[in-house]
UniProtKB/TrEMBL annotation:
Gene3D superfamilies (alphabetical): 3.40.630.30
All copies of domain N-acetyltransferase, residue ranges: 10-191
Key words of the record: Acyltransferase, Plasmid, Transferase
GO molecular function terms listed in the Swiss-Prot or TrEMBL record: acyltransferase activity, transferring groups other than amino-acyl groups
InterPro entries for the chain: Acyl_CoA_acyltransferase, Bact_Acetyltransf, GNAT_dom
Descriptive protein name: GCN5-related N-acetyltransferase
UniProt entry tagged with the keyword Calcium: no
Pfam families: Acetyltransf_1 (PF00583)
KW Transferase (keyword) present: yes
Length: 252
């Protein structure tokens, strides 16, 4: 496909087992050579296992979805999204206020034609229906302008962790990028309102992180419990910005 403009006949649907080979090809071709982001899902056999996980009780409990964008007979893109959950400890905590866009991949030939934007808006709508108030993702550097066009905030390259204060109990939820050095954290309020981002140094040595408040009811009264680790900036230097519900035309 050449030029810009939106694809008129894009169809969004749930992925099926027979899509695994095409999905693997999308993931292999959609990202830069050598990129570690989502590499694990470029194997058709692992994707088959993933689809069983989506349909499992745990998958249903976390609102796990794997969606396909189909143009004609071709799978042009795919996206995974779900509620955030903590896999550590004897029990798993599920955080229904927080949504993760786990993977977004669009074939190069279909970029800048609205396919990626359609997938993101589809995921946002489903997450919002499920009660999610804020969505976040790990983005490749090249995709940051795409997310920004959809009113996501992209954190600086040095930010390696993002912390939320969910309503599901007193526990914090922190997502760390880990070893994927090329990833950038992006996030967006799905409900509007004021947001605040405070930068801190993660106590586990994972580098600077951001703590977001003003997104989930009651979270503005809570603080990161490790100020002794060295808060960078603090409340007086916190950045403020508007949450948005509608995005501009994307590049996907």
């Amino acid at each position: 496909m050449d030029g810009g403009g939106c694809v008129r006949d894009v169809v969004l649907r749930d992925a099926a087992q027979e899509d695994c080979a095409a999905l693997a090809a999308v993931l292999q071709r959609a990202h830069a050579p050598g990129s570690a982001l989502w590499r694990e899902w470029s194997d058709p056999e692992k994707l088959k296992i993933l689809l069983f996980a989506v349909a499992s009780p745990k998958g249903r409990a976390t609102r796990f979805r794997l969606r396909v964008a189909q143009v004609g007979e071709e799978v042009a893109g795919a996206m995974m999204s779900r509620w955030a959950y903590d896999r550590l400890g004897p029990t798993e905590a599920i955080f229904g206020d927080i949504g993760l866009i786990d993977t977004l991949a669009v074939l190069p030939a279909f970029r800048r034609h609205g396919v990626g934007r359609a997938l993101v808006k589809d995921a946002e709508a489903e997450l919002r229906r499920a009660g999610v108030r804020v969505a976040y993702a790990e983005s490749t550097p090249g995709a940051v302008p795409f997310y920004e066009a959809l009113r996501y905030r992209a954190e600086p390259e040095e930010v390696r962790a993002i912390t939320f204060f969910p309503r599901q109990g007193p526990k914090l939820y922190t997502h760390c990028i880990g070893d994927l050095s090329e990833a950038r954290l992006v996030w967006k309020s799905l409900t509007g309102g004021m947001v605040r981002s405070s930068v801190y140094e993660h106590p586990d040595g994972k580098g600077p992180g951001v703590a977001l408040t003003g997104l989930i009811p009651g979270d503005a009264r809570r603080t990161v419990p490790w100020p002794e680790a060295g808060v960078l900036g603090g409340a007086t230097a916190a950045e403020r910005g508007e949450g948005h519900q509608r995005g501009r035309a994307g590049t996907g």
